[in-house]
Amino acid sequence: MPIAPIAPAAPERPRRSALYLPASNAKAIAKARTLPCDVVVLDLEDAVAPAMKAEARTAAIAAVEEGGFGHREVAIRANGIDTEWGADDLAAIAGSRADAVLVPKVSCTQDIGRYEEALEKAPSTMQLWAMIETCEAVFNLKEIAAMAPASRLSLWIMGTNDLAKEMRAQLTPCRTPFLPFLSMAVAAARAHGVTILDGVCNEFRDLDVFEAEARQGLMFGFDGKSLIHPAQVEPCNAVFSPGEADLAWARAVIEAFGQPENQGKGAIRVEGKMAELLHLEQAKRLVAVAERIAERG
Ligand code: COA
Ligand code: MG
């Protein structure tokens, strides 16, 4: 049966919350269809034990075939191309209706090239999403991001657990050892139009710790955060949705720049603060993001 094309991701599509779940867990898949997450990541990699890999792959493909995910984008995280499961995972995902394939431990441009090749026969709308989680990747961020415009690559997810493991660093709630990479990764992603999501917070029972970490990610400029538990979805959406005060300011800036007396001006006064044309652009973007979120109901 031919594969129906999937609509390409529109600009500013909300990706506030991306929930991972082991594709071997049927209950979790059923639950994900009911949760308000923007993205579901069916994992074949670290969350699945070696003995369950083949079964998880079959379950993930069946789940996307069955559908029922509504507005949620569905990605399948493959095992690395050099593992014993990688080639079979990529072939199966390439023939599936998944919106994206998420690939682990991308370290250099050659890695992206190999995944592109493996996805040669996939629908043209299937996106390539990459985990940034190796020490080597940290030094190749700019080059990897620069491949996006001419490839399927469109989104990065930070893999802070793997980074901590490789660095032998401690992943504490303040994330001090990782802060330089987080901001460098955001800057590299922005330079080439790549969407970028923050790493997971392992503390899924303590939502105060989670919220503080999500706010730190927002402050760094991430579009959203990757998640491991249903309880994290709503607080994450709340953090990554434009707030009322920011929206009110954005609307005031748009309105002020629309006034006849402000035509042709680059900098004006809005509610006692300076607003420049760059703030007008930011304001328009914020309102557009809020509208996309509101469409989700
Ligand atoms: N997605 C969807 N549903 C999930 C889920 C997830 N990530 N994690 C848990 N659930 C479901 C459970 O199936 C359970 O459903 P039920 O009430 O119908 O039985 C419910 O939510 C409550 O689960 P809970 O008992 O609180 O969690 P747990 O102790 O069973 O599992 C984890 C904890 C961390 C093992 C589990 O949340 C998980 O597997 N997370 C994802 C791990 C992952 O994918 N890692 C890879 C990326 S880092
Ligand atoms: Mg990882």
From TrEMBL:
Keywords: Lyase, Magnesium, Metal-binding
InterPro entries membership: Aldolase/citrate-lyase_domain, Citrate_lyase_beta/mcl1/mcl2, Pyrv/PenolPyrv_kinase-like_dom, Pyrv_kinase-like_dom_sf
Keyword Magnesium: yes
GO molecular function annotation: lyase activity
UniProt entry tagged with the keyword Nucleotidyltransferase: no
Top-level taxon of origin: Bacteria
Cofactor(s) required for function per UniProt: Mg(2+)
Family per similarity comment: Belongs to the HpcH/HpaI aldolase family.
Residue ranges constituting the HpcH/HpaI aldolase/citrate lyase domain according to the UniProt record: 16-230
Official protein name in the record: CoA ester lyase
Gene3D superfamilies (alphabetical): Phosphoenolpyruvate-binding domains
